[in-house]
Amino acid sequence: MRRFQLGPPRITRRSLIWLIPAGTALAAIAFGGWVVVARAMPAARSVEPALSELRGAAIAPLGVDGAGALDDIRVRLVEVRGDLRPTARLVRLVGRFSAALSWLPLVDHEASVWTAQTDRALGDVETALSLVDASSLLIEIYDGAQDVLSPSMPVAHLDGLKADIAAVRAAYGNAGEALARRRALDGPAALGLRVPGVRTTLDLVGDAEADMALAADLGYRVTDLLGDVVEIGRQVRPLVDSFVVNGHAPEPIDPDVLRASLDETGRYASLAGVKADGIAELVSTARAGDALTLEVERLVELVGVLGRLHRAASLGIQALDPLLEAARASEDGLLGGGPALGEAFDSYAGQRKSVDEAISLLAGAQATLARLTAGSNGRLPARGLSELMTFSLNLETGLRLLNRLAPIGRELFATDSARDYLVLGHSADEIRGTGGFVSSVWLVRFENGKLTKVDYFDSARVDDWERLLLYPKAPGGLEEHMNAWVWLMRDVSWDPDFPTTALAAQDMFRLGQRREVDGVIAINQWTLLKLVESLGSIPDPGGGDPITSRNLLSVLEDGTDTHGRAYMDLTLQGVLDSLTRPLSLGVLTRLASAIYGSLNEKEMMIYLNDPESQSAISLNGWDGRVVYPEADYLYVVDSNVGWNKVDRNVERNTHYRIDLRRLDRPRAALTLEYKNHSGPGATGCLPQWLSRDTSYGNLKNACYWNFIRVYLPEEARLLTTTSLPLPEHSVSVEIGLGVPGEETGGVSSSHGKTVYSGIMSISPGDRSEVTLVYDLPTGVISADGESLTYRLLLQKQPGLRERDVSIRLILPEGYRVASSSHPLLGTDGPEVTLSLRLTRDTLFEVALVQGTHDAR
What is the largest distance, in Å, between two alpha-carbon atoms of the chain? Predict the structure, then answer.
């Protein structure tokens, strides 16, 4: 019987032969594994941060500093790739050695998994580099795509852009497919070797791969969407060009081509809208950075704008088509006569619902474009957006004008009768109550919708000097400060109420020319500027270069010096000649937009003798009347009494402070600031009638003599005013109506208002102020339960392009602002402030509720 011996096993020669190679192999594997771990660990750990950094660049390539971030990541990835390649070669070498020991399953499996994971990491780096390259090109495409909406983009640029989009889309697609194949591997779960940190690192690499896959998907979708945006831009470009003037007259677009383009645009816009929604949803779940989220939101909004503009253009063009047909039906354009114009107005009025929808869509598009243009943190440039904004504004304001004129279109253009209108040509450089000194007068006749006559009159010759005793006495300020003992046509715009001016002008024209008219229209050089801008250009009456909005004012000044005031007539005839030719859609809409803007800014005013038509004009605020709101009221009226054209050089600022703590009678402090920017060599202030020759350049660089009138609520009670002494060498002193140094500031009543008036002079380069302190009447603050509402109507003087206004409100004790019609600049304790540029009549309204100021 064999005996069993306790203790270590005996090593036989056979077992020794087996243990020697096995031990050697295990030692080699252990050493190799140690080397792999020693080299793979830093490399593996460096992969994850680099790929995670890629999340901030490749996944958000459109960020503000996208290009710079991508360059940094590219450098980092190249370094990682350089570190990882030797490690990969070593791992593969160990893997080949371990294959000889396939009879040791653990060793063989572990080596093969390490090889796969190392190749995976290296592949991830290569894919990351391809994503970086694709993202870099995407940034260029994204910037270049905006040029599609800008004028004069070459066709070759468009073709190259579309090719780049296809290449980038393919690159993102290939990267996504490669990542999908790589992520299908078992990954770190298959590792048996429990090296501390390795499994965690590989888990993080897996997370980075997920981010890269998301980046590839997002990049593909964004690039695909940009392709649609480019195509929409290509389709809409001719339409935008026909509405936007860039120093030249745009080429008209064929109606059939336009309709086909709109149909194609609608198809792309609908498809792009679906894609944009998908991108927005993807970004919301992508853990994307703020920069990417912002940019995608902006891109989605742009796609929405394009869709709304397409819908609005389709509706608007459908409504305008009858007017276009009327314009095409006559060789003399829209005002060529015949029944077409009247029928077009009837048809347009019948499409009111569609037009209202188009206007609403355009207003919404403008609000979005304003946000996109104002966004300073995004890549979306403003150059293409400004073109879209101009297109949208022109179409919207054109439709608004036609919407409001259509009901009275037949009457206004005499489509079934004849109408004569007196047109007053104001010089806004010599400002007066309702526009300016009247330098030119026209008699315009419409018969059966056709413009049949335009007769020009020099304002100095329109009056009958043999019948001056029949003319009315000059208004007080005009007589006292300009020695006008009779009221003539050239000074007819002295009163600040245009209906008063219009009736006086009709009486004077009847006395001077023995003619009756059916209404009065006022225009000035700013009206003419808008009309020329809408047309692109008109011929120069002197045979020089075409007149554009850029050179109109200088051409008028030079032409007046050479040819006299009749040059204004020659220029206007150029505009009218353009209107008597067939009009394209773009020209028609731009003209309507220009007229609408002129009416709203009181550069053009209308008074019709027909009560029903005038009621519609008045309802739109186009009659230039003094208004009577149930609110606080401020209307500053300047009148140049210096026989010059200096008003264009005068800067005007209004500072209005209202103390609302006295609810029964709030107290107001008004400061009117004037600065005369006339240049070197300008003539001085004394005497008032100083001769400045007839050169327009000298006439507009001179002393500013201003007869100022401030219209306040009727029951306002004036408390203190700045002294306005009468200068010694003034007209009033010279003719014996005034005494040097006497106070000219005084209070009177006119048009149901309290009026403060006086004369002041401002030397070239100087500034001057007038301050009034007064109590407002009871009722300017309305109460509704525990809330209060303060309303202020600022009326804009016709002819003045703008007046800067700042308002400061002192709130009642225990109240705070609940809402405001205009953005507030800030608060200072119980005070709130705002500023605005007064270019049209503006109603400011603020609602107050009880509460602390901090709660605001």
Answer: 164
CA 97 to chain CA centroid, Å, is: 71
Q: Is 143 exposed, middle or buried (0-12, 13-18, 19+ CB in 10 A)?
A: middle
Q: What are 623-671's pLDDT values in tens digits?
A: 999 999 999 999 999 999 999 999 999 999 999 999 999 998 999 999 9
Phi first, then psi, for residue 48 (nearest 5°) are -60, -50
Residue 214 CA to residue 246 CA, distance in Å, equals 43
Which pair of tokens denotes residue 260? 């086909």
CA distance 561 to 426: 17
Q: What gap in Å lies between CA 655 and CA 808, rounded to an integer?
A: 8
C-alpha count within 13 angstroms, C-beta hemisphere, residue 779: 9
How far is the C-alpha of 317 from the C-alpha of 394, rounded, in Å?
13
At residue 606, the 3 state secondary structure works out as strand
Give the span between the Cα atoms of 770 and 423, in whole angstroms.
35
User: How far is the C-alpha of 597 from the C-alpha of 478, rounded, in Å?
Assistant: 30
pTM here is 0.80
Query: Could you give the 3-state DSSP secondary structure of residue 812?
Result: coil
Which pair of structure tokens corresponds to residue 67? 């290009």
**Residue 821 CB neighbours (<10 A):** 13
Please answer whether residues 535 and 579 qualify as being in contact, where contact means their C-beta atoms are separated by less than 8 angstroms.
Answer: no
16 burial type by CB count under 10 A (0-12 exposed, 13-18 middle, 19+ buried): exposed
For the segment 788-808, what is each residue's pLDDT rounded down to a tens digit?
A: 999 999 999 999 999 999 999
Give the distance, in angstroms, between the CA of residue 430 and the centroid of all CA atoms in the same chain: 31
Cα separation, 799 vs 436, in Å, equals 7
The structure tokens listed for 528 are 């003419």
Q: Is residue 388 a contact partner of residue 381, using CB atoms and an 8 Å limit?
A: no
Q: Is 163 left (phi over 0), alpha (psi -120 to 50) or beta?
A: alpha
Q: Cα 431 vs. chain centroid, distance in angstroms?
A: 29
Smallest Cα–Cα separation from 458: which of 503, 427, 496, 435?
427
Tell me which residue has tokens 């990541």.
73
Angle between helices 566-579 and 552-563 (to 10 degrees): 130
Residue 614 and residue 367 in contact, taking contact as beta carbons nearer than 8 Å: no
- In angstroms, what is the C-alpha Rg of the chain? 39
